[in-house]
């Protein structure tokens, strides 16, 4: 029993050394890389992807469309109640001439400008007024004159349809005639003698020829 004492002491010392080595291995910091630099730091968290920019707003000047007046074009039609004809002649310079008549006693010549958007406000004698808009090959709006206030629609007229006028002196009287030739060939017109209106005789649309009080006149398209 006395001989085993040194052996026990040696074994105890070896066990203690093994425990110390194990502790050193678990607590030793990570070694530097081969180039002597500091050990790599943990990777930084990946940042969120950039938010894509919103698409630019559409340019109204590119998306919006306007209907510009068609130059050198006539439009002819009737009021909403069918009682009167309406004709409008548009010109290249943005001017317009219109004629409204019921073929018996009510009539008015109107003039004014046409906007780039097709809007128009034409005025005539005794407060006559035509307000309309050109869009889609027709003019729609409202006309007002003494004893007449109605909406109207006038569609693009193809010759011989359109607006005609004649003026002359016949037997000492000042004669002025206006005619609307509708797209279906029907005519609405008034001849005034010294300001007194009456139904107009029909014109020959091909030539504009018309006989008034025995005199041969020529009704011409509004220039």
Tell me what you see in this structure:
- The structure is a single chain.
- With 223 residues, the chain is mainly beta.
- It contains two helices and 15 strands.
- It has helices at residues 5-27, 60-63, and strands at 73-79, 85-90, 95-101, 107-113, 119-124, 129-135, 138-145, 148-157, 162-170, 173-181, 187-193, 196-199, 209-212, 215-218, 220-221.
- The strands form three sheets. Strands 1-2-3-4-5-6-7-8 form an eight-stranded antiparallel beta barrel. The chain has a five-stranded antiparallel β-sheet with strand order 12-11-10-9-15, with no helix packed on it. The protein has a two-stranded antiparallel ribbon with strand order 13-14.
- Strand 3 (95-101) and strand 4 form a beta hairpin.
- The protein is elongated, with a radius of gyration of 48 Å.
- It starts with a helix and ends with a strand.
* Low-pLDDT segments: 32-36, 60-66
Radius of gyration based on Cα positions? 48 Å
Strand content: 35-45%
Distance between the termini: 145 Å
Strands ordered across the widest β-sheet: 1-2-3-4-5-6-7-8
Number of strands: 15
Order of helices and strands: HHEEEEEEEEEEEEEEE
- Give the overall average pLDDT: 81
In percent, how helical is the residue content?
10-25%
What is the overall shape?
elongated
Number of helices: 2
Main β-sheet, in a few words? 8 strands, antiparallel, barrel
Q: Structural class of the helix and strand makeup?
A: mainly beta
């Amino acid at each position: 029993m006395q001989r085993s004492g040194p052996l026990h002491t040696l074994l105890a010392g070896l066990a203690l050394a093994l425990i110390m080595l194990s502790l050193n291995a678990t607590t030793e910091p990570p070694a530097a890389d081969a180039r002597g630099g500091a050990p790599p730091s943990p990777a930084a968290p990946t940042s969120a992807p950039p938010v894509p920019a919103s698409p630019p707003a559409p340019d109204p000047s590119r998306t919006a469309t306007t209907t510009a007046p068609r130059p050198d074009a006539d439009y002819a039609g009737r009021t909403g109640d069918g009682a009167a004809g309406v004709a409008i002649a548009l010109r290249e310079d943005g001017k317009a001439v219109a004629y409204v008549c019921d073929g018996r006693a009510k009539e008015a010549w109107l003039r004014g400008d046409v906007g780039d958007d097709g809007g128009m406000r034409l005025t005539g004698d005794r407060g006559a007024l035509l307000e309309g808009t050109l869009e889609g090959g027709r003019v729609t709006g409202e006309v007002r004159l003494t004893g007449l206030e109605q909406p109207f629609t006038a569609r693009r007229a193809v010759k011989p349809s359109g607006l005609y006028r004649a003026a002359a002196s016949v037997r000492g009287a000042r004669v002025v005639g206006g005619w609307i030739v509708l797209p279906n060939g029907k005519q609405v017109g008034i001849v005034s003698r010294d300001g007194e209106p009456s139904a107009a005789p029909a014109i020959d649309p091909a030539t504009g020829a018309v006989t008034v009080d025995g005199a041969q006149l020529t009704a011409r398209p509004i220039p």
